[in-house]
Write a structure and sequence with these properties.
The structure holds 2 protein chains of 2 kinds.
Chain A lengths: L1 E5 L9 H10 L6 E4 L10 H5 L1 H17 L4 E4 L2 H16 L1 H11 L12 E3 H9 L1 H7 L8 E4 L9 H4 L10 H8 L3 E2 L18 H17 L4 E4 L2 H9 L1 H8 L7 E3 H8 L17 H15 L1
Parallel strand pairs in A: 1-2, 1-3, 3-4, 5-6, 5-7, 7-8
Chain B lengths: L1 E9 L9 E9 L5 H11 L19 E4 L2 E4 L5 H6 L6 E4 L6 E3 L2 E2 L2 H10 L19 H11 L6 H5 L1 H5 L6 H11 L7 H10 L12 H5 L6 H15 L8 H15 L4 H8 L8 H17 L5 H5 L7 H11 L9 H4 L2 H4 L2 H9 L1
Parallel strand pairs in B: 1-5
Antiparallel strand pairs in B: 1-2, 3-4, 3-5, 6-7
The chains are: A alpha/beta, B alpha+beta.
Chain lengths: 300, 357
């Protein structure tokens, strides 16, 4: 399957292991990535807060670039990109006059956005387009006995109507479904659908870190081996800022946080090193040990 | 007539005992409300069940509760819908969150919700001179504020606010939506003072984490988070209120960062949000981040080149978009609440025509 691939900013910035892991798992799932290297930041909600038209124009340009490829759809690997782009798409698709106003701006580059681009996070693509049965068949190292806590990121699950959650698309349950399909054990804990706190890290640092620390602590209490998230911005607050979050909530956390393609890659048989697991601030020792114990068990 | 089992969260502080669950099976038509189910249980089995209600028609906002973990009005939730979202065939009803429980399903709205509403000066401050006849308000401006006027003060958004969960001082979504009702009203005399107060308050509008919980919680479509974003936009870009919480600086640093780089350069965003790398505000922040930066460098998560430089620069086409949009004399803001969707606005004939194709 060929997709117009939007990696976002942070996967090429402070979470380079995410970009690398996606590149490593794509061929194993027969996904051909047509990277949108001319596109710009989605605005992460901040540009829309500043000026809606600016955010809508930048994202219309990204959608138009995706529509110029022969990809079946546009795919992203960031919950925040998904949410911020869906918000802009909602306005662009709702109103023809507005859409043409925006198109007039990007027309100088020979671009035109056609209403109704399909833009899906990798998580949605796995469940809705590839299918969990097909994913299951490709598993080489089932995540047996690995206790994984899902962490979605707000932008990929709310608001439910805009994000397309309905009876046929229970997108707020896909991470749990995927962890099970990969052979892992889903950990039920309070924070899975809550906010990591990242958006207010510079405005209300204590509240932001308290959010991250509390969810990580809940996962520790639920005896999780690791968390998995489709959002690199959540990863920044949950992993990069984890030492500061631990200080704010006053407890040791040491909870590894994996990017979605990393967990997927482990199950598809890739090695922790190939997936950049050594590049996290909180070293995912429990996960690396687990992967080695699985290899040892297979050899015995 | 069908039977429904309700699992109610009970708590009586006067008893000295802990909260507990209590189950009752009621008989009602499936289109009747969860509130009617609770009232039947109260009438038939246990008169001591505490629930606050009045209009039973989603107007008074008294019966806010959590049903199967989701906030809503008990009178506005059908029993069959509640059953469909129940995990184990039993409809679970709890008091709302983020507010102290007085008894069973009744929370103390005065202690939290109403106190925060009072904080934002919840009345119109007339522009002077007051005209002899009525104020004339442009239609779009009036329709725009009716969205926040639709609030019935039920507290559902307060109940689920994830920022209030960790910061009880946060002014919260209901009060901020109410604040927009006046800031967005052309008749109000003091939008600047209102905004400055909300921007400078350390638990004001910049403590909203942008989690969309309030948007989904609201039974009346008020979209509190959308109103908060409008407040920030007006404060930052119409009044240039440079606040002490970095709200203004963060927004402007982010926009400048993308205009320059096309993709976000995180290493610049943090210090710029505090006023620049060498600003007294930024120095302690950078120092406190130092252990993490060193660990990131050791783990090759961050390379010195990436931390200092940024290999990506915005293309001239991206910069042209910034220049073009930012040079417009007035922001073009499509408000779907005012304009509606093309699909909703098509005349009946056009829809039928579309259906034929």
């Amino acid at each position: 399957m060929k997709v117009a691939y939007w990696p976002g900013c942070v996967s090429r910035g402070f979470t380079p292991e995410l970009h690398g892991a996606m590149a490593a798992v794509a061929p194993l799932l027969d996904i051909e990535l047509l990277e949108l290297d001319r596109a710009s930041c989605c605005g992460a909600g901040v540009i829309a807060e500043h000026n809606q038209e600016l955010a809508d124009t930048l994202n219309a340009r990204t959608f138009a670039l995706a529509q110029q490829t022969d990809g079946a759809l546009m795919m992203n690997i960031c919950s925040t990109c998904q949410g911020a782009q869906s918000e802009c798409q909602e306005r662009l698709d709702a109103n023809a006059v507005y859409r043409e106003h925006i198109n007039a701006t990007i027309s100088s580059e020979g671009l035109h956005y056609e209403q109704g681009v399909t833009n899906k996070n990798l998580l949605w693509l796995l469940v809705e387009d590839i299918g969990l049965d097909a994913v299951r068949q490709k598993v080489k190292r089932p995540l047996t006995n690995l206790r994984v806590g899902p962490f979605y990121g707000c932008y990929i699950i709310r608001p439910a109507a805009r994000i397309g959650i309905d009876a046929d698309h229970p997108r707020h349950t896909y991470l749990e479904q995927l962890i099970e399909a990969l052979g892992g054990t889903v950990i039920d804990y309070a924070g899975s659908h809550k906010c990591c706190g990242f958006p207010i890290i510079t405005m209300n640092k204590t509240a932001s870190l308290k959010q991250a620390g509390r969810h990580l602590g809940d996962a520790v209490d639920a005896d999780a081996d690791c968390l998995v998230t489709p959002c690199p911005l959540c990863h920044l607050n949950l992993d990069l800022q984890q030492p500061l979050a631990a200080a704010v909530v006053g407890r040791e956390l040491a909870m590894p946080v994996l990017h979605l393609p990393q967990l997927l890659g482990l199950a598809l048989g890739l090695e922790p090193k190939e997936l950049g697991l050594g590049r996290h601030i909180v070293k995912p020792r429990s996960v690396i040990d687990w992967s080695q114990s699985v290899v040892a068990a297979a050899a015995a | 007539m069908a039977t429904f089992t309700l699992r109610l969260r009970r708590y009586d502080p006067e008893s000295g005992g802990p909260p507990y669950w209590d189950e009752h099976t009621v008989e009602l038509d499936s289109h009747r409300s969860v509130l009617e189910g609770i009232l039947q249980a109260k009438g038939r089995f246990d008169g001591s069940i505490g629930i606050r209600c009045s209009c039973r028609a989603a107007i008074c906002g008294s019966c806010g509760v959590r049903i199967n973990g989701q906030p809503g009005l008990a009178c506005h939730t059908h029993l069959d819908d509640a059953l469909a979202s129940a995990a184990d065939g039993v409809i679970e009803v709890e008091p709302m969150g983020n507010m102290p429980v007085i008894k069973d399903l009744i929370v103390d709205m005065d202690a939290v919700h109403w106190k925060k509403i009072q904080e934002i000066t919840p009345w119109l401050i007339n522009r002077e001179p007051i005209p002899e006849r009525e104020y004339l308000v442009p239609r779009d401006a009036m329709v725009d504020v009716t969205q926040s006027m639709a609030c019935i003060q039920c507290g559902a958004c307060v109940s689920d606010c994830l920022a209030m969960e960790v910061d009880s001082q946060f002014v919260g979504p209901a009060a901020l939506a109410k604040a927009y009702r006046f800031v967005g009203d052309p008749r109000d005399a003091e939008p600047f003072e209102r905004l400055r107060h909300l921007a400078e308050n350390p638990d004001g509008m910049y403590s909203c984490t942008h989690c969309f919980k309030c948007v989904d919680a609201c039974p009346k479509g008020v979209n509190p988070m959308g109103q908060i974003m409008r407040l920030r936009r007006i404060a930052n870009d119409d009044y240039d209120i440079e606040d002490r919480n970095n709200g203004y600086r963060h927004e402007h640093a982010f926009v400048k960062n993308i205009r320059r780089n096309g993709l976000l350069h995180e290493a610049d965003l943090l210090p710029d949000s505090y006023g620049g790398k060498f600003h007294p505000r930024a120095v302690p922040e950078l120092l406190s981040s130092l252990p993490v930066v060193i660990r990131g460098l050791l783990r090759r998560k961050i390379t010195p080149a990436k931390a200092l430089l940024h290999p990506h620069k915005a293309s001239k086409e991206v910069r042209a978009i910034f220049d073009h949009v930012e040079s417009e004399p007035k922001r073009y803001e499509l408000n779907l609440y005012v304009s509606g969707d093309d699909k909703d606005n098509e005349p009946a004939g056009a829809v039928a025509e579309g259906a034929k194709q």
